[in-house]
Amino acid sequence: MPLLVMKFGGTSVADLSRIENAAKKVQREVARGYDVIVIVSAMSGETNKLVSFVEGTSKLYDAREYDAVVTAGENVTAGLMALRLQEMGIPARSWQGWQVPINTTSAHGSARFVSIPRDHIDQKFAEGFKVAVVAGFQGVSAEGRLTTLGRGGSDTTAVAFAAAFGAERCDIYTDVDGIYTTDPRIASKARKLEKIAFEEMLELASLGAKVLQTRSVELAMRYKVRLRVLSSFEDTDENSGTLVCDEEEIMESKVVSGVAYSRDEAKMTLVTVEDRPGVASAIFGPLAEAGVNVDMIVQNISEKNYGSHPGAVTDMTFSVPVNQVARAQKAMEDARSAGLINYDELVADTEVAKVSVVGIGMRSQVGVAAKMFQALSSENINIKVIATSEIKISVLIDRKYMELAVQALHDAFELDKA
Ligand code: ASP
Ligand code: MG
Hints:
Layout: E1 3-8, H1 16-31, E2 35-40, H2 46-57, H3 63-70, H4 72-87, E3 92-95, E4 103-104, E5 113-115, H5 119-126, E6 131-135, E7 138-140, E8 146-148, H6 154-164, E9 169-174, E10 195-197, H7 198-206, H8 214-223, E11 227-231, E12 242-245, E13 258-274, H9 279-289, E14 297-300, E15 313-321, H10 325-337, E16 345-358, H11 368-378, E17 385-389, E18 392-398, H12 402-412
Parallel strand pairs: 1-2, 1-9, 2-6, 3-6, 9-11, 10-12
Antiparallel strand pairs: 4-5, 7-8, 11-12, 13-15, 13-16, 14-15, 16-18, 17-18
Helix pairs in contact: 1-4, 2-3, 6-8, 7-8, 9-10, 11-12
Aspartic acid (ASP) binds next to helix 6.
């Protein structure tokens, strides 16, 4: 039997009528001849509520009990979905993570998959069950304790099941109808993409297009699981939504597929650090130890001052999420007190945003950066930091120009046109 994985997010199972609506979508695939593994999230708002119960009970809570509490949300929707399917005459049953078992590490709150044995579910399909409903976001550790995968983790559960069971596709039903060239709330000309490559999606996901948990895309890329993002609020067919797939499936990729942004960035500069071997390591080592998430890094010295002669100095600029500025400052002050580094001043600009253009076509095309900078310059937007990778160019700019920059880049690369 061909097999599909169908994942329903929180808004798609928000109440009994939404669950019924989701079950009808499952019924349609069963009628087409598929065996289906359904992965469910908790009803929307439910996980937040459970987290607040934990925090309201214990400030320094035991992470194992946190997981014991928050897994409850998905257990409810899994059982209800199985019941609804049974009401429709479809042989179905639910599985909690430990029943499969979904084996994970014991990193409570951010566990990773170790293995997903197929035997139990395969056996039920062989006995005539058409649908296995599995609670997303959860697993069980080697110690036999319940674990969770991190917020948004049901996407990752869905991809892991699609990989483990060799599913034809993994359909992610949500409250948006696909992946867009940029955020439609910022650029009204944003267009829904028919297909997007894993690598591009990974860049867009980590840059803030919050449709899919980043880890789910990493996993899909590793195991080549074709992922489709589509709306459970619309009538959908086999061409709906956006397919996230291997780039080989995309015949004609555009140079740039999307414009991503990240609003809450900060630019930090260590002024006049010594220019000698070991300085970068003495800066970024302590930042990493302090748990600071450094993104862009720029170091440059004037040619006039070139060389590692005694007394040579440079500035070191890096970007961090704006809420980590204080932590970064403390890490640098501590490193200076400990004699690891020396600098005159640490300047923080907390009013910046990052805007990026992403596209696999960039690998074989010149002039993308020039076009990007031209578009920003014609809007009089000053670029503060630039960083590039094989398929992405990012700039830091003043936050107040972020929307304008996204619109200008969307226009410049003609992303509104298919
Ligand atoms: N219910 C969990 C959360 O809200 C997991 C998920 O929905 O993906 O984070
Ligand atoms: Mg989600």
